[in-house]
Structure formats: structure tokens, C-alpha cells
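Supplementary material to the annual report.
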Amino acid sequence: MAFINLENVTKIYNLKGANVTALQTTDLTINQGEFLALMGPSGSGKSTLLTIMGTLNPPTSGRLIIDDIDVYQLNQERRADFRYSYTGFVFQQMHLLSYLTSIENVMVPLAVSKYSRKEQYFMAETVLEQVGLLNKKHRLPKELSGGEQQRVAIARAIVNKPAIIFADEPTGSLDTNTGNEILTLFKKLNETNNQTIIMVTHNPETLSYASRTVVIRDGIIDSDTLSDKEYLCSEDREV
Amino acid sequence: MRLYQIAYRSLLERKAKSIFLIIGLSLGLLAIITLMTITQFLSTSLTTSLKEHGANILILPRTETISLTFNGITVANERIQEHSYISSNSIDMLKDILATSDYSINEKTDLGVIELHLKSDSIDEIKQLLASIETLMPEVQATVSLGNLDSRQQLFEEFNTYTVFTILILIVVSIFLITATMMASVNERFPEFGVMRSAGYRKKNIASIILTETILLFIVSFVITTIIGLVISNLVLATIYSSQYKLFIPITSVIYIGLSGAIVSLLAALYPAMKAANLDPIEAVKKI
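Predicted assembly:
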């Protein structure tokens, strides 16, 4: 059985009395270790799909099964515990806590854990090293560049060693070079830690990093392709 | 990193708001502590006077009086009809009634009166004792001379009522102050709570951050105010009661104010805490 299983999932929002279908009946399976890019025009339903898979947004119907757990059958607090052990989130706006240093920001998810302060500090240092920011661990977010802030946010997302990292346009507010650095970092995490990455993106560069691309249009999966790296790279060169 | 550290650091980040709330709470607490200290001092000084000086009670045989009127003209008013003496039985009975009290008795049976000097903790207790003497011993009547204590007691009661009302108003104002400040803080931190929820924080974890911040602010205000409040009220008391004045620290009042203040602060912060806890994480992270 696949690691993530979406079965007949739909999402209908009720906006001022009118029902708006954000996601039509969707089935999707994702294996552990995949790097999935979720693409599509604005309003296509890709962010809805991401938040449903991220256990933050209960679907109107259907089931989400992750690691054999029917996630939306859990109550809200159990689902929070589930997120703590299984998921990490990276947002377009990094949403770092402005009053905490890099390493403290990374430790935020651990504040509700049973780890001692020493263990927390060690775990935070380890991931900061992975994202290449150990030397700036005592800097406040305002003293870091956009790319560095996003790397701290990634470190924060992976400090729990989650099986799945959800990223919502993580390169959206960064310039191309910095964006590529961030994508390289995600790729590295994907390869070295075998972490599943599900990334909503507009950035076509992502295609050269992702192992699979799902395109959504009008709430329906329009295409689902496994990337052929060679092909994509050559296409990249042509562009 | 622990939740209380996040709370503490967040307060340091929002210095202006924190200081504003601390000043507001401190002023309220200062007024409460000063008023309560003075009230308690007045009450203690009343009790002390009563304990030290006691009350003089005069016990007389009950005498029947008659008034003589003729054609609407009072001929003789309240004339004592006869003079009687208090029996030794009655004196024994009186001693039985007073058995548990601290008293000294001066029997002037030849004059038909008993002088009683009674030490007590409260005026009410003395008045109750007089009433029970008259009920149990219908043949006597008892009068008490309290000197200026009676008027002091009345003044104290008026001051006490005023204190209670002022404190109630101050509590209501403080509740509004805390709720408004913490609500403003929650509103500007939506993304922060959204990140925490998506990182697996439970609702109660988020709520506890807000409640911890509130209680930290209260503790700081309380410590500052207790020190200043005690200094001020002691200065006031030293000025008014220069001769009787002794350093006065109402420990029970301070503990009482601390505990009830902490509870009131937490109740005031409950709504903002619930609001932060119940945020939809998706909406929260969208807000910039």
C-alpha cells in the first residue's frame, strides 16, 4: 500500500451561501520518498489539495490515509499529534518568529515535545547544519537574507524528522538563484533522508528537481507524470 | 525551548504593549493594595484598642418607671418607683455567662450596681453579650460605654463599603484592559499560531502561551505594586496615626490579592487565548 492515499476526496467551500467546488473527486497515491510537484494555475485547487494532505483541512468527503492511519477519523488534538510526528510545513512567507534567533525558531516545534533542552539544542544544531546555517544560529530573522530565512524555516520543518514535508510555494518570494538553492536543499533532503516532499509551486524550475509532477486544473488532476530527469534537463537546456 | 520561554520572549518583543499593560495593572493593584492595607489597619487598630482598653459595662437592677400625666400635662416623668439590689444569685449567673470572656468585675452591691470591665475582639461581640445578659437575666439592665470606639467603628464601616466598591470597579477596568491588550497581541500574531498549529501544537498549547504571558505580566505588576503599595500605605498610616503607628504588612491581604488577581487575570485572558487556540491554521498562515 502506498504511503499516502487519497480516496475519493472532494472539497466544497461554502462562500456566502454559494457552494464552490475547490476539489472534485480525487484519488491520488504517493509513495514514500517521492518528490512531488503540485502545479496548476491560481485557484485550481492545488493549495486545497496540499492542505488536505497536510491534515489541516478536512475534506467534504473521502478519506486520507497516511501510513495506514485514516487521518481525518482522528479528533483535532490527535491530528495535531499526528502532524507533530509525521509532517513538516514550509510556507511562502517563512513566518519565522521575529523575536527568536535561528536556532530558537528551529526549536519551536520541539517546545511541546518531551526532549530535554540539551536534546532540543542538539537536534536544532543538526538540522541547521544540514541547511548550512549553523554559523548563523544566533541571528534574528531580520539579520538574515530571504533565502537564509527560508532555510531556517526548512530546518524548523524537518527538526522533528517528519516523513513528509509539505511546502507551499517555498520559492515564491525568493529570486531565481536563491530559489534554486532552496530547491537543491529540498532535493538533498529528499535523497539523503528519504523524506517525501509535496510542493505546491508555480516555479517551472521545480520540474527539474521533482520526481513526479501533478498538474491540477479546475479542481481535477489534469496530468500526473513521473519525471524523466534526462529529458527534463535537456528541455531545460533548450529553454 | 519551552512554551513559557516563547511566552516570555514574545513579551520582550512587544515591550510597549507589555509595559502599557503592566502600568495599567500596577495602578489598579496599587489602589487596591493601599485601600485594603488602610482598611485592615483601621480594623486592627479598633480591635487593638478594644483589647487593650476594654469596654466598661454597667449592670443595674431593672427598674420600673412611671410617668404621671394629668390633662395632657406631664406632672412627673420617669420617676423611679423603687430601688432594688442585684441578688448574689444574679451575680453568680452573670459570672456563668461571662465564663469564657476576659473580664474583671467590681461588685458594688451596696449601690445596687455592678461595674464590669470586659476585653473583647469586637464591638459586636460586646453588644451580643449585653443582649444575652438581658435576655437571661430579666431582672437587670446593662449599658456599655465605648467612648469614641463607636464612632470609629462607624467610620470604618463606611470606609470599608467605599473600598469594596472601588475595588470592584478597578477589577472590571483591569479585566477590560487585559482582554483588550491580549486580544490585540493575538490579532497581530495569527501567522505565528498558524505555524505552531501546523507544527503539531495542540490547542491547549497555544492557549497556554497566551495565559502564561498574561500571568507573567500580572506577576511583574503585582511585585512592583506590592512594594510601592506597602510603602505608600505605611507612610499614610504613619502620618495619620503617628503615635500608634507600627510597621504594618497585611500578609493575608497581600496573598489574597495575589491569588484573586491571578485568577481574575487568567479569566480575562481566556477569551483571547481561546481565540488564538481556535484559529484555522490555513487562514492564519495566509495572513501577512
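Helices of chain A lie at 46-53, 76-86, 102-107, 117-130, 146-158, 176-193, 229-238.
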